[in-house]
Design brief:
Layout: H1 8-11, H2 31-40, H3 45-51, H4 61-66
């Protein structure tokens, strides 16, 4: 998410899920939260950058976030 005023634990309600059962876990972090996690090395962003699979991306947003932070 680019930004959100909604608390993290409530954000999943704002995101439309694809139809049918899809085995994914949703972590709707804002861009600033991801940047902080990558810079400081905590949370879900570092393992997602190393091991995750991008299922949806808009305008290269994920690549822009991880560029310069490295994939440890």
């Amino acid at each position: 998410m680019k930004q959100s005023d909604v608390a993290f634990h409530e954000r999943h309600r704002c995101i439309p899920y694809p139809p049918g059962a899809v085995p994914v876990e949703l972590f709707p972090y804002t861009a600033e939260e991801v940047k902080t996690m990558l810079r400081e090395g905590w949370g879900m962003a570092p393992p997602a950058a190393r091991e995750g699979m991008v299922l949806a991306e808009r305008d290269g947003a994920w690549q822009a976030l991880i560029t310069g932070h490295g994939r440890r």
